[in-house]
Amino acid sequence: xxxxxxxxxxxxxxxxxxxxxxxxxxxxxxxxxxxxxxxxxxxxxxxxxxxxxxxxxxxxxxxxxxxxxxxxxxxxxxxxxxxxxxxxxxxxxxxxxxxxxx
Length: 102
Description:
The chain is α+β, with helices and mostly antiparallel strands. 36% of the residues lie in helices and 19% in strands. The protein has one domain.
């Protein structure tokens, strides 16, 4: 499939993208991501590997569109982890002014 990333044309094939990412350790996901095989990679990391360009030269949107058209599953920004709520015992202890139990 022909696509343009950072004003440069690329002919991408799903199997070639999978082969390029084989053996590449995924970085921690903090933004848009893509699932390739059983691993989830940041979109910018995949874009850097398949285009051999600096990741500052293209947007995550450009790579996401190309990978989606190839049939990969792309994900938006991950949801923040939920805050841990205090247990009822911790809440009651705080209200009564007692030090928390260890």
